[in-house]
Write a structure and sequence with these properties.
Layout (H helix, E strand, L loop, with lengths): L6 H12 L3 H14 L7 H25 L13 E7 L5 H8 L17 E7 L2 E7 L14 H10 L2 E7 L4 H14 L2 E3 L6 E5 L5 E4 L7 H10 L5 E5 L5 H8 L4 E10 L6 H11 L5 E3 L8 H11 L2 E7 L10 E4 L4 H8 L1 H5 L1 E7 L8 E3 L9 E7 L1
Parallel strand pairs: 1-3, 1-4, 4-9, 5-9, 7-8, 9-10, 11-15
Antiparallel strand pairs: 2-3, 6-8, 11-12, 13-14, 13-15
Helix pairs in contact: 1-2, 2-3, 7-8
Length: 384
C-alpha cells in the first residue's frame, strides 16, 4: 500500500536530514510522526520514526546527566498514595493544594511561583493521601528545558495525576500544551499497557504465542533483538499494533490515570469555556472548582480517592475491636497482601483469616490467602 505522504511530512523529513543536534533531530522526527498519514501503508514508517525518537531521547537525557542535572525534585511518598498537580504557570495549582490540604504553598499572580514540588496531606475516608503541587509545565520540558527532566521524574513517581487548567483563559489550548509535553516525555494518560508477557531465558531463541494478534511477527522479533532480547517466550494476549508492542518494550514509558480540574470557575467567561472544553475532552473526568470561594472542593476530594483505586481494610485481633486507622490497599489486593502489609511474620506464618464485610457472604466467614478484599472489610488474621 502506498504511503501517500503529505508535503508537511516531506518538509519535516528534509528538516530531519539537515538537523545537526539531538534536539533538532527529535523535533523534526516529532513533526514527521504528527504529519504522516495513519493507515496500514505507513505502519512500518511510523514504527521506524518512533524507534529513532526513542533512541534520540535516551541520548538526550544521558547527555543532560553527564552535564549535571541540577537539584533533585524527588518527593518521598507519604501516606497511602501520591497525586501530582500538573499544569501551566498561573493555573491555580498552589491554591488548590492549599484548599485541599493544610499546606501553605506560595500563591502569587506572577508565573512560575512554585520552584520545587510542594507536598501536602489530604485526609479522606480515614486515609492519608499526599497531594504534590508540581512546578509548572512549560513548552519543551520534555526536551529538558529548565529542570524539565527532574520535573518529569517527579511526576512519574506519582500514583495518579490531576491536570489543572485555568477556565478563565483558554483551557483547550492549555490542555493541548500539557498533553503534548506529557506524551513527548513518555506518559500515556488514561491508557492501558498492552497485555503482553515476556519471559526471558538463557537459550532457545524467541517463541511467540498469540501471533494472530499482530500484523508482522518478523518485525516483532526484530524489535526484541534490538532491545537485546534474543531468548524469550512472548505471550501476546490481545490485538496489538507494532507501535503498541514497541511501547511495551520501552521502560521509560509511564501509564498514568488522570482527571482534569478546571480552576477559577467563579470568574467571567468560565461557564462558556467549560462547555467548550468538555466537548473537546469528554473522555476525561472533568471537575470545575474555585479554590478562593471553596466551590466543589468535596467533589474533587472524592474524585482523587476514586482515581487512586484503593480500598480501606480494617484489621483486628481475635476478640478485639477493629484497629484504627484502616490500611489502604490497591483494589484487587488479597488477604495475603494485607498480611504482608501488617507484618512480614503474619505473611510468612499465615494460616487463614476471618472476614466481615462486602467481599464475603456472611460476617466472620473463613477465607484463604487468595481471597480478594473489598472496601471497608474487617480482616482477622490467624497464623500458625
Amino acid at each position: 500500500m502506498p504511503a501517500n505522504v503529505t508535503m508537511e511530512y516531506l518538509l519535516a523529513e528534509d528538516e530531519y536530514r539537515k538537523a545537526k543536534t539531538i534536539t533538532e533531530k527529535i523535533k523534526a522526527l516529532e513533526k514527521m510522526y504528527s504529519t504522516i498519514p495513519k493507515h496500514k501503508g505507513t505502519e512500518k514508517m511510523r514504527l521506524s520514526i518512533k524507534q529513532r525518537l526513542s533512541k534520540y531521547k535516551e541520548k538526550l537525557e544521558k547527555s543532560k546527566v553527564k552535564r549535571g542535572r541540577g537539584p533533585t525534585f524527588s518527593v518521598k511518598k507519604e501516606g497511602a498514595a501520591q497525586v501530582a498537580l500538573v499544569g501551566l504557570p498561573n493555573s491555580g495549582k498552589s491554591s488548590i493544594l492549599n484548599v485541599l490540604t493544610r499546606a501553605n504553598s506560595v500563591v502569587a499572580s506572577y508565573p512560575l511561583t512554585t520552584r520545587i514540588p510542594t507536598p501536602g496531606m489530604l485526609e479522606y475516608n480515614d486515609i492519608q493521601l499526599e497531594i504534590v503541587d508540581m512546578p509548572s509545565i512549560i513548552k519543551d520540558i520534555s526536551m529538558g528545558k529548565g529542570f524539565g527532566f527532574q520535573l518529569i521524574d517527579a511526576i512519574r513517581n506519582a500514583d495518579a495525576l490531576s491536570i489543572i487548567v485555568d477556565l478563565s483563559k483558554d483551557p483547550v489550548r492549555d490542555m493541548e500544551i500539557i498533553l503534548n509535553e506529557l506524551y513527548r516525555s513518555g506518559f500515556r494518560i488514561n491508557k492501558r499497557k498492552p497485555e503482553i508477557e515476556i519471559k526471558k531465558f538463557s537459550s532457545g531463541g524467541i517463541v511467540i504465542r498469540g501471533k494472530e494478534y499482530v500484523s508482522d511477527v518478523h518485525e516483532i522479533k526484530k524489535m526484541l533483538v534490538e532491545h537485546k532480547i534474543s531468548n524469550a517466550l512472548v505471550v501476546i494476549k490481545e490485538k496489538t499494533s507494532l507501535e503498541e508492542f514497541l511501547d511495551s518494550l520501552n521502560r521509560n514509558l509511564s501509564y498514568k490515570k488522570a482527571f482534569i480540574i478546571g480552576s477559577k470557575n467563579d470568574l467571567e467567561n468560565c461557564d462558556k469555556n467549560l462547555e467548550t472544553f468538555r466537548k473537546r475532552y469528554s473522555e476525561f473526568g472533568i471537575l470545575s472548582l474555585s479554590a478562593e470561594k471553596k466551590i466543589n472542593i468535596e467533589q474533587v476530594k472524592e474524585k482523587i480517592y476514586e482515581i487512586l483505586d484503593i480500598v480501606r481494610v480494617f484489621t483486628k485481633s481475635p476478640g478485639s475491636e477493629p484497629d484504627y486507622p484502616p490500611i489502604a490497599m490497591k483494589r484487587g489486593a488479597t488477604i495475603l497482601d494485607v498480611a504482608k502489609e501488617v507484618h512480614k511474620q503474619f505473611y510468612k506464618n499465615f494460616k487463614y483469616a476471618k472476614v466481615w464485610g462486602r467481599s464475603v457472604k456472611y460476617d466472620g466467614q473463613r477465607a484463604g490467602g487468595d481471597h480478594v478484599v473489598g472496601e471497608g472489610d474487617i480482616v482477622e488474621i490467624h497464623i500458625k
